Amino acid sequence: MRIHHAVSRIGCFLIKKSTRDAFRSCRSLHSTVPVRSVELTKVRYPNLKRGPFSVLKDTDVQFFERLLSGAGRVLADASEIEGYNTDWLKTCRGCSELVLRPKTTEEVSAILNYCNTRRLAVVPQGGNTGLVGGSVPVFDEVVVSTQLLNKIISLDELSGTLVCQSGCVLGNLEEYIADYNLTIPLDLGAKGSCHIGGNIATNAGGVRLLRYGSLHGSILGVEAVLPNGEILDCMSTLRKDNTGYDLKQLFIGSEGTLGIVTAASVLCPQKPSAVSVAFLGCESFAKVLDIYKEAKGMLAEILSAYEFLDEASVSVNKENLKMSSPIGDYPFFVLIETSGSNGDHDEEKLNTFLEAMMSKGLVTDGTVVTESLKIKDIWSLRERVAEGLLHDGYCYKYDVSLPQSKFYNLVEDMRERLGASVIRVVGYGHVGDGNLHLNMTSPTYSSEVMSNIEPFVYEWVSKYNGSISAEHGLGFKKRNFIHHSKSKSAVSLMKQLKKSIDPNGIMNPYKVLPDD
Ligand code: FAD
Ligand code: MLT
Ligand code: ZN
Predict the structure, then answer these.
(1) Is 399 close to ligand 2, i.e. is its CB under 6 Å away?
(2) Which ligand is nearest to the CA of 475?
(3) Over the chain, what is the mean pLDDT?
(4) Cα–Cα distance, 125 to 94 (Å, whole number)
(5) Centre of ligand 3 from the C-alpha of residue 215, in Å
(6) How many angstroms does the Cα of residue 281 sit away from the middle of ligand 1?
């Protein structure tokens, strides 16, 4: 039993005051899979019918060229728009012939007004890091990219309210407000590429949800353009405002089906001044849960993340990304992050906690780091699994909420079910939020493997009253399984809402809502 640099030397271990924000990765995410080799969505799903939308004409392109003057704002060249047609996972590919890059809310309004009148279908796109095929066209929808809606509008240092356009990259916002000792209440592996508008549209969770709660609490205001071009101003910067229905909430998690989010106000917490990360090895998933229970009690208010990886996930990093683990091989790994405002206080708590975990036999091996680069390396082990999996070929990605006691049984059942038909079955995720990421890989897409996974996985989750999408949304891939997590009456009201806001159905068709 050993803890490197930590429990064995825990008595003299000094946690230096530091913040993780300076060292967490903020690189943008580029995949190595060639775009042209991705099968067209309309070919992979031959039963799917194109909706009753108009086909783009030269006169439409001319209209947009007049509206969006300046280079690089109207893209119609096949090579330029390839990347906008294909998702990050390289599992969906549309055949849009037009990408529009507005800079202002008024331009977005004019675009949607025109598309609605002409019945041209539209896909809003942020950083295109979505994992359910929601951000790319299915057929020939026009892509409206928020890449140039990237201005920071204001920051109120006292309240911590940041107001910005929706195309600001999450990592850039974090860097900007760090100078004011503030941080963004959302953090995820895609932060170097994803946009705050995309985060809002997917109600992204990430690794800070445990500490700061969901975006339903930290987004104070939203400005959105409705499908008919009307600008909906819900840009409150207030924490408390009970005047009527809270309409901004409708856009948080709407995945581009109700309109385009053009700006938002975000409540930003104080940046913690002391951060440490422990990476621990343990023998069973039951122990992962026992450690979590103890961490909640003993680390309490300084616990800011509790993540787990199984051995197969760490192997992905080692084999496909040539990364190394700072500790030996174990069936399970736990990443615990603490952050607070008093390093000495946090150090004492963490030391006492780790000693207790060792003496109870819950932790077999581990390391604790406080230096910026080492913290970054350990977070990379957790956050780069998604990227590593792509190197296997095709990734079947599932993101479910389950009672924590049932969490890992799904991974084991899937492993037994799929056997040698897949390269691997891995489980990792946000234990603290009851959110498991289950992933399988094969060299190329196999409809046979897929039919062994779906609907089995959704039925399994539904049996334990879980959610078939914890944080990634439904997008294109999961919408027809919504009934495993939502009642008939709920889906029916969703459809009515969609119809009243978007009667022509132009906004992100074939996404979120199931086929009739
Ligand atoms: P996109 O992918 O461009 O779009 C996502 C959806 O939102 C689409 O339906 C799109 O139409 C819509 N949309 C985008 N912008 C707007 C807008 N302005 N108005 C209206 N609709 C819009 N998700 C998590 O929840 N937690 C994680 O920990 C997490 N980690 C990730 C790690 C990696 C490496 C990757 C690749 C993805 C991860 N994701 C995670 C998934 C993804 O949801 C987030 O990356 C992010 O929220 C998507 O933002 P985006 O700007 O890339 O949106
Ligand atoms: C994560 O937590 O790493 C992301 O949600 C991405 C994934 O599920 O692979
Ligand atoms: Zn996640």
Answers:
(1) yes
(2) 1
(3) 94
(4) 13
(5) 14
(6) 31
From the CB of 198, is ligand 2 less than 6 Å away?
A: no
Minimum-distance ligand 2 atom for the alpha carbon of 472: 5
Strands 161-165 and 152-156: antiparallel
Question: What is the residue with the minimal CA distance to atom 7 of ligand 2?
Answer: 386
Ligand whose nearest atom lies closest to the CA of 136:
1
Q: Which atom of ligand 2 is nearest to the CA of 429?
A: 2
Say how many Å lie between the first and final Cα of the chain, rounded. Answer: 57
Kindly give, in sequence order, each residue whose CB lies less than 8 Å from that of residue 444, ignoring residues fewer than 6 positions away.
Answer: 393, 394
List of residues 6+ apart from 412 with CB closer than 8 A:
none
| Residue from 392, 399, 436, 440 to probe ligand 2 pocket by mutation (most atoms less than 8 Å from CB) | 399
Which residues is 428 bridged to in the sheet? 309, 437
Structure tokens at 358: 């060792």
User: Is residue 25 over pLDDT 60?
Assistant: no
**Residue (of 67, 30, 256, 29) closest to 143 by Cα position:** 256
- Which residues pair with residue 276 across a beta bridge? 338
458: three-class secondary structure by DSSP: helix
- Length of the chain equals 516
Percent of the chain with pLDDT strictly greater than 70 = 93
Residue 16's pLDDT is what? 28
Query: Which ligand is nearest the CA of 472, by number?
Result: 1
Judge whether 382 and 309 are in contact, CB under 8 Å: yes
**Contacts of 320 by beta carbon, 8 Å cutoff, 6+ apart:** 388, 389, 391, 392
| DSSP class per residue in 459-507 | HHHHHTT-BSBSSS--TTTTGGGGGGTS-HHHHHHHHHHHHHH-TT--B
Flag whether pLDDT at 317 surpasses 50.
yes
Our measurement of the distance from residue 342's CA atom to the centroid of its chain's CA atoms, rounded to an integer in Å, reads 30
Is the beta carbon of 189 within 6 A of some atom in ligand 2?
yes
Q: Read out DSSP for 264-320? A: EEEE-PBPPSEEEEEEEEES-HHHHHHHHHHHHHHTGGGEEEEEEEEHHHHHHHHHH
**Residue of 383, 437, 468 best suited for mutating to test ligand 2, as the one with most atoms within 8 Å of CB:** 437
Distance CA 170, CA 173 (A): 5
In this predicted model, which residue has the larger pLDDT, 27 or 239?
239
21 pLDDT tier (thresholds 50, 70, 90): very low
Cα–Cα distance between 504 and 110 in angstroms, integer?
17
Question: What pLDDT shows up at residue 173?
Answer: 98
